[in-house]
Amino acid sequence: MLQVRSGSLQVLLWQRALDPDKGRWALPGGRLGPTEDVEGSIRRQLAEKVDVRQLTHVEQLAVFSAPDRVPGERVVATAFLGLVPCDVDPVLPEDTAWHSVAGLPESAFDHAAIVERARDRLRAKLSYTNLGFALAGREFTVSTLRELYSAALGYRVSATNLQRVLSRRGLLEPTGSTAPPGPSGGRPAALFRFAARGLQVTDPFAVFRPPPADRPARAARWP
Amino acid sequence: MLQVRSGSLQVLLWQRALDPDKGRWALPGGRLGPTEDVEGSIRRQLAEKVDVRQLTHVEQLAVFSAPDRVPGERVVATAFLGLVPCDVDPVLPEDTAWHSVAGLPESAFDHAAIVERARDRLRAKLSYTNLGFALAGREFTVSTLRELYSAALGYRVSATNLQRVLSRRGLLEPTGSTAPPGPSGGRPAALFRFAARGLQVTDPFAVFRPPPADRPARAARWP
DNA sequence: CGGGTTTTCGCCTTAGAAGCGAAAACAGGG
DNA sequence: CCCTGTTTTCGCTTCTAAGGCGAAAACCCG
């Protein structure tokens, strides 16, 4: 479960109380019940940590199944990526805490690798989908959206270009109202929202493809 | 396990001899052994159908875990995408056969949905990776590569553009030799090969990103 | 050698993304 | 109330990858 907090991408971890790997930080999760699928299971497990309505996106990552990934009994895990918008701060149980994805503490089992996979997936999808909606609040300024993207991607993003690209793709729409300026003045920023709050892919795969028929064909020229 | 055969994308299926879903066509697979991971398991299962060395690419697709996806006992399946180059024709056991992905026969369980997922994944990755290497032989002409891409993608692609894009990305390199012309004459086609035979992603995710430092940077200023 | 065929190449257009500077809109102080 | 500093937004230009199109290249056959 990832969230951007105080300018960095963070992950919710839980400190193990029992062996194996007692005291180390682990991802939330648990066993699959007989009447649920894996996504239902992970949503159920996470509901013990945060309110389910705060979870704006959940998707499968991969299966981790190395025979020795957990000492003792054989455990096959299906890893998920879950996202929480930046404007909520759930009350957490005693044994859980947010940790910056860059610079994780000593983690249990192969969970560090899983977090890395989740971060990579998030970074990739931020560029070719509208997944930013899952990190941002319902309304936001371009500046705050820029900070979210910068934190999640790990490099600085131009606010100008961010707004241009997302707008051209039809993902961003203005609310009409503006946010009050900061303490040091400045022009008040316009508020935006994402046009859709479900995952939408903006076809990055239109390669090798002939243009759609609805575009007018160009007239032939003769020398 | 997918392969392009006689101009269409096909999948290797196995006809079930036992209930449930007796007589229907199913994907190859089986139970996970205690000392292997899921990829090792699927490779072992497939080795009963084709030579392992003919399998040029294997990757995880997704976990299918609906409680009722298989009648009777609970079965959680990890689906894989496997690719076989077009220049091999493995000898098959009696009960297995290739089927065109477009127009599958009545399939067992949720296997039709899995095949659809595999096809979509292949199509996507053909456009932003070098995954074509797994469908093509070691050496090929641009025309045959065009046919492979057309069959897998489901629409006609331009040989000119295909060569240009793959070359610009540095994925394609000429072998120096040429293939003999066909029965109706024509200029002999140059032979090419993929520069790498492992999966390489050609960053379709370079969005919102400032240009790399090794390019003549024009005095970048950041807010 | 000329006609038919297939491949390859060069030049141009299109589309999306990024660079850059200036205008717009606010706060605060003199 | 004007001037300065700050932040946001907009318009124009540039860059890069992909696609269109026709001509040249290189072969076969009669």
UniProtKB/TrEMBL annotation, chains A, B:
Q: Which CDD domains does the UniProt record give? A: NUDIX_NadM_like (cd18873)
Which Pfam families does this chain map to? NUDIX, WHD_NrtR
Q: What is this protein called?
A: NUDIX domain-containing protein
Q: Which PANTHER family match?
A: ADP-RIBOSE PYROPHOSPHATASE, SLR1690 PROTEIN
| Nudix hydrolase domain mapped to chain residues | 1-139
